What we know:
Three copies of one chain form a homotrimer.
Chain A: E1 29-34, E2 43-47, E3 50-56, E4 62-66, E5 80-82, E6 85-87, E7 94-95, E8 101-103, E9 118-119, E10 121-124, E11 127-131, E12 155-156, E13 160-164, H1 168-175, H2 181-184, E14 200-203, E15 207-217, E16 233-242, E17 246-255, E18 270-282, E19 285-294, H3 301-330, H4 343-361
Antiparallel strand pairs in A: 1-11, 2-3, 3-4, 4-9, 5-6, 6-7, 7-8, 10-11, 12-19, 13-19, 14-15, 15-16, 16-17, 17-18, 18-19
Amino acid sequence: xxxxxxxxxxxxxxxxxxxxxxxxxxxxxxxxxxxxxxxxxxxxxxxxxxxxxxxxxxxxxxxxxxxxxxxxxxxxxxxxxxxxxxxxxxxxxxxxxxxxxxxxxxxxxxxxxxxxxxxxxxxxxxxxxxxxxxxxxxxxxxxxxxxxxxxxxxxxxxxxxxxxxxxxxxxxxxxxxxxxxxxxxxxxxxxxxxxxxxxxxxxxxxxxxxxxxxxxxxxxxxxxxxxxxxxxxxxxxxxxxxxxxxxxxxxxxxxxxxxxxxxxxxxxxxxxxxxxxxxxxxxxxxxxxxxxxxxxxxxxxxxxxxxxxxxxxxxxxxxxxxxxxxxxxxxxxxxxxxxxxxxxxxxxxxxxxxxxxxxxxx
Amino acid sequence: xxxxxxxxxxxxxxxxxxxxxxxxxxxxxxxxxxxxxxxxxxxxxxxxxxxxxxxxxxxxxxxxxxxxxxxxxxxxxxxxxxxxxxxxxxxxxxxxxxxxxxxxxxxxxxxxxxxxxxxxxxxxxxxxxxxxxxxxxxxxxxxxxxxxxxxxxxxxxxxxxxxxxxxxxxxxxxxxxxxxxxxxxxxxxxxxxxxxxxxxxxxxxxxxxxxxxxxxxxxxxxxxxxxxxxxxxxxxxxxxxxxxxxxxxxxxxxxxxxxxxxxxxxxxxxxxxxxxxxxxxxxxxxxxxxxxxxxxxxxxxxxxxxxxxxxxxxxxxxxxxxxxxxxxxxxxxxxxxxxxxxxxxxxxxxxxxxxxxxxxxx
Amino acid sequence: xxxxxxxxxxxxxxxxxxxxxxxxxxxxxxxxxxxxxxxxxxxxxxxxxxxxxxxxxxxxxxxxxxxxxxxxxxxxxxxxxxxxxxxxxxxxxxxxxxxxxxxxxxxxxxxxxxxxxxxxxxxxxxxxxxxxxxxxxxxxxxxxxxxxxxxxxxxxxxxxxxxxxxxxxxxxxxxxxxxxxxxxxxxxxxxxxxxxxxxxxxxxxxxxxxxxxxxxxxxxxxxxxxxxxxxxxxxxxxxxxxxxxxxxxxxxxxxxxxxxxxxxxxxxxxxxxxxxxxxxxxxxxxxxxxxxxxxxxxxxxxxxxxxxxxxxxxxxxxxxxxxxxxxxxxxxxxxxxxxxxxxxxxxxxxxxxxxxxxxxxx
Lengths: 362, 362, 362
C-alpha cells in the first residue's frame, strides 16, 4: 500500500473533472524529487503536465497535492505550511494532506466538496515517488525493485538531477542505445567496438533489454581507474527500459576471455549499474534522475564523487544532443528513418503506446 | 466637453475601419499617463490593445493619436515632434493634433482622407484621460469626480504606476476584496478581523461597493504611525468599483466604540482613500495607477513618501499573486469555484459584461 | 555550371519529399556567407527556412548540405568534419559532399537511398552562393554580374552583414526608395532635395530601377569628404532591385550643372555603388549582406574603413525602422496605404509574386 496518511481525510478520489494530456501513462509511479530535497517547506514541481506541491509532514510522511487552490488557482506552493496543513496565500483556505479543504476563513461555512487532488506517494531508494493515475490503483509494490540495494560491498554515487528540454522518450531511446556512446561520449564511455558490435534484443511484459558482449576492448576512460585488473577487457552493455520510463544500464568489464556469461563472472569483474528515472514535465521537457552502484570501493567517497561528476558531464553531452533532436524531429521538413539500433526503442515505443491506449479505454 | 483643440481639423471620426478587441468597454475614459509625465516629446503607450502616441502641444494641451503612420505603420512615436505636428520617421508624413495628414513631402499632393485616429483627451486629478470609444460621445463630465480634492487639510501621496501581467479584472476583483489583505499583505494592511467579518454589498448604476465595519481591532502596521488616538480601533473597509475599472478604497480607523456610521465620525477618526485606476494594456496586461488621500498631516512630505513606498510594496505583493492567478485560471485543468467574498466582484463582472454587450450592439 | 564536385556521388536529386515554405523564389542563387567566413569547419545557417551546413573541402570547394541527419535530425553541424566527409555527432553516420550516406557504422549495411540534400554552390564576388531550388536548373552564369569588378582604380569596402528581424521585402522596398534617406539617415545620406524630387521608374525582366537626378544640392555628410570638387553638386540616385532580392544603389555626385546624363560624366564626378544582397532566413528574418565600390582612393584603407563604418551605422538605422514596420504591418488594426514612392516596389512585388506563382505551378 502506498503511504497514505491515516490521520487525515480518507478520500483520494474527487468529483472534480480533470483535463489531462493524453500522451503519458498515468497509472504508474514517477519520481517527483529526491527524498533529501523535501522537508518542512512547500516545493513546486510539474509532472506529466500537472502542477503539484510537495511537503513533509511533522511525522515525516511526504504529501503531494495539486498545486492550485480551487478558488482562483493560485499555486498553493505560494502559500504557507502550517503544521501539516497548507494555507493558500490569497484567502487563507486550508487543505489537509488528503486535499480536503478544512478551513475557509473568509466565511462561516466551508463550501461542500472542496478539495484539491491528493496524489498517492511513497519513498523508496532515496526518492519520492508519486502515483499519477487513479488513486485506488496505487500499489507501492509496483515501484521498481532494486535487488541487493543495501549490499555493503557495493559503492554508490550521490546521483543527480537534470532538466532536459525534450520529450522523455528521446531520453529513454538514448538510454536503450549502447551505440551512441561512441560519438556522444567520445572522451568518457567510448572505446573501440562500442560502435558496431551487434545488439541482442529481449522483451518482457515490463519493457525491453538491448545488450551485447564486446570482446577484447580497451577500457574506456571513465571506467579505467576503477577496474581491478590489468590489460584489455571483455565488456557487457546491458541496457534495459521499463515502463513508464525507467532505464537500467548495466556495464561489466572482465579480463579478456572471461566474458560472455553475466551469471558466471570472473572474481575481478567490475560491474556498474546506472539507474535512470525520467519524469515527464510535459510533452517538451523531462526531469532526469539517476544514481549509480558498482561492486567496488564502497567506502571511497572520492571515487563516488568523481564518478558522479563524470556522469553529470556525460549526461550534459546527452542533453545537448537530445534537445537538438527534439527540435529537429518536431520541425523536420523531410522524412526521417530508423536504423538497426532503433529496433529496441521502436519495440518499446509500440509497447508503451499500447499501454497508454489500454489505460485510456478503461 | 473633452479638450479638443479648436485650432486644428475638427473631424474626429474617420472612414478607416478598425479591428478592436471585443473584451473592453470603450465608451469611457481611461488613464493614459500621469500629466507630469507628458511634455514636449512623443510618448508611446498601449491601451485596450490600441497603440497610441501622446504629446503636449505648445499651448499645453495633450494630444493622443493612433501610433502608426497610415503608410507603413511605423509608430509615429519613432518620429519627431515639430511644433504641434508629428512627423513620421520613415518618409516625413506630418499629422496635426486632429490626426489629419498635413504634409506628404515625398509627393506633390497629400493623398485624400489620410489621417490617423485622434482620441479625445482630458486632464484631471493629475492624469491624462483618453476616451477610447466613439469620439462624438466623449464627455469630460463623465470623468470620475473626486469630492473635495483640493481640501488643504488632507495629505496626499505622489502616487505610482505598476504594470501587471494579468487581465485587468483580476485587479479590480482584488480591489473589491477586503479579505485578501489578511494573507497577501500580512505585514502591512492586515490585522485581526480582516479575514472573516461579514461583507455588505451595495450596487448602483456605476458599480459595486463592498464594505464592513470591524469592531475593536488592533491597528495594522501600515496605518498605526498615522492615527492620532491611542489603543484599539473600529475599522471601516469601504471598497468601491466603478465602470470601467476604477476602484476607490476608503479606510476609516476610529477609537473603539465610535465606529459604525461613516457620516458621524469621531473627531480623531483617521480616514484614508486610495484611488486606483486600471487601464488594460491588452487582455493579458494592465497598467495600474494610484494615489492616496488622508485627513491628516497635509504638509508632512515624509509621511506622504513613506505611505507611497508602503503602497508600492503592498501592490507588488498583489502583483505577484495576480500574475499567478492569471496563469492559473488560464491554464486550469480542473474547475474553479467562487467563495462568498466573490459576490461583489461577480456582480460587477456581470454588470460590466452587460455594458460591453450593449455597447457592441449599438 | 555550378561548382559540383566531381569526385563524389553525382546525384543531387533525392526521393525524399521536402515541405517548403511557399513564399520564396527558390530557383535562384542566394548568398549563404562571405567566402572568407567558410573554412575547414562546419557552419550552420538558415536560408529560406532550410537549415544548411557549410564547409570547405580540402581542395577549397565549398559544400552546402541539409543540416539534419536523416536518422534523428540532429544538425550535422553539431558533428565533425573528417576530411571532406561530415560525420553526425549522434551515431557517426557519414555523408559526402553530394549528401550521400557513405557510412552507417552502427550496422553492416548502409540503408539504401539515404542522403541529405546537397545544394549547388558557387563562389563569386567574395560570397558563397547557394541555389535553393531544383539542382538541375542551377546555372552559375545566373549569378548577378558585376561589371568591371577588378578595376584597380576603384576603391572597395570590406562589406558587412546584418540580421534584421523583418520580411526580406521590407528591406528591398527600402533599398528601392531614395526618399527615406531624408528621414531615416538624416545625419548621413540626407541633403536638401532628397525628399521630393520626382522619381523615374524603369522595369526590365530582372527587376525595377527607381532613379532621379537632383540638381544643385549640397553634399550629404557621408559623401562630402570623398568628393574631389568644391561647392554644390548635381546628384543621381539610381536604385535597382533584381530578383530575388539583390539591390544595387548607384550614387553620382558631379559639379553643379554637369549632371543629367550618367553616360557622359564629368571628370570629377564621384560615383559609389552599393551592392546589397538579402537572404531570407525565414518569413520574419533576413540576413543582409553588402559592400560598396567607388571611383576614387583605391589604396586608402582609412577611407574604406570609414565608409564601411558609416554604412553599418546607417543600415542599423534602417534595421530599427524596418523591424518596427514588420511588426506594425503584421499587427495593423486599420488599413494602410501606398504613396507615390511605392510605385517601384509595388511593381517589383507583383513581378516577384508572378515569378513565385510560375515556379510553384511547374
